[in-house]
Structures are given as structure tokens and as C-alpha cells.
Amino acid sequence: MLMYPKNRHKEYVADVKKWLIFVAVFSILSLVLSNNALAYSIETKSIASSHMDKSFPATIVLPSAYNNPAQRFPVLYLLHGHGGDHTDWLNKTVVATLADHYSMIVVMPNGDKNKWYMDSPINSNYRYRSYIAQDVVQYVDQHYRTITTPAGRALAGLSMGGYGALHIALQHPDIFGAMASTSGGVDPRPFVGSFDLDSVLGDANTLSENWHNAAIISQIARLKMQSQALYIDCGDNDFFIDANRQLHQALRAKEIPHHYAEWPGEHNWDFWQRSIHHQMIFFSQFFKVESQ
């Protein structure tokens, strides 16, 4: 620790005050500069559900190019995982910076913590597929300058949200032209009794058809006709890896075009932080091709 001579106490105090003032001014200036450098903007909106008589928050990233009032933008809808919420992607990845770099709007809705983005066959109060596909998309198109065709909309998510993205997009090709799943729980059947799936799909023994129909692998036939762009990735040490491999093989057997990636990784944010970079490139290329 620096020791200041006693006979220079007043000068020392004066120097400290000057230093503190300098630090304060520097901190404020740094904050102002950093905010100015933050080219994108972030908004939080409350979006009502016409099916469930309640509202949910959504985080929305607008790229810096949105300042051009003559331009319309593609939208990536990005879903959170089980137990998460609309802030996860923003707080734990660089998705906002990527949205700015690729000049797309990113909408991160809240799909509740454990409802799997389904319209539940056993509980009419759970209408989360309809909420995302209809209410959220309609709100965004009404309040922002978006490209209002499937060519300008993509849907993606992680884990529960990865399942939700494929599940919703497959049933709404008139809304979403592209979809992606990272570490997705794409087949609920091996996870009876886990992740609150029973509360959405019912008893697996007496209502086995619900579980069968919910599996993405049971829905892929429609991809042949719908021609949506599809991206899937998963870590090789993820507990969902077997279901993702099986889905990939089923897609190959049906000669359905898709992008599949498998890397070293687990079911965590380290993997999802890497994955979102690849997804954004995939979607950017999709939007670019579709706009030509």
C-alpha cells in the first residue's frame, strides 16, 4: 500500500478527490460511449394470448439497420428451454450482437416454463402452439416492419424450445419458412415422467397416441410437401442425442433435405452459445436466398 508523508496530508486528500472525480467522470463517459456503441436496441413487450386469456412478456432485438424506415426485416423467433424464460437467450448468449450483424429482428417470447409449446390434447388451457404461431407473430407483424411471409420468418429454440420450434413450424408452413432445433427434446416418449411432459400429454399408458403423435419423427412426412428449411444440432454427450440421431436418420431415409450437426458437448449454455452462431448463419442464408 502506498504511504503518503504526514506533512503532505492535505495534498494527498486533494489528490484522492481529484482521482475519484476522474474515475467518476471516466466511468460515466465509458457508459455513455458503450451505450452509443450499442447499435442494436432491445425492447420488452407484453403479448396477449387470444387462446388463454393472459399475457406473456417477450424480449425483442431490433438491429441497427432498423433505423432505416424504408426497410423491412426478416424475423427469427427464438424459444427458451424447460424452466427458462424470454430473457435466457439474451442474457446468456451474444444473440443481440448476431441479430445486429445479420440485420434481422429476433423475438424471444415466453412460452411458460414447462408446457412444451403444445396445444395440449388433455388440457384446453394450454394453447402454446397457437399462442406462438398466431398471437406472437401477429403482434410482431403489426408493431414492426417485418417481412410478412414464410420467406421472412424462422423459428428456433433450445431443448424444450427446440422441440417447440420443430413442432410449431411443421404445423404452420404458411407462417414459418425455416426452423431449427439445438439440443431439442424431439421425442418425448423416452422421457415419460420427466420434464412435466405428463401434464401436457397425459398418461403414457392410456393415452399413448398423444405421445406418439407428439414425436417429431412421427410428423416428418409433411416436410416432403412443405419444403421448409431445417437445421438440427446436438452435443454428443447430451441426454437427447439418441432421439436427435434417430430423427436425422429418418430424415435421410425419406430423402428430406436438412442440415444436421453433432459436436462434442453437453446440454448446457456452452453448447448453445456456440450453436446460435451456426444457426444465425443458416437463417441468414435462408433469408438471403428467399429474398432473391
From TrEMBL:
Quote the Gene3D superfamilies the UniProt record gives.
alpha/beta hydrolase (3.40.50.1820)
Pfam families attached here? Esterase
Q: In its UniProt entry, what is this protein called?
A: Esterase
Q: Which organism is it from?
A: Alishewanella tabrizica
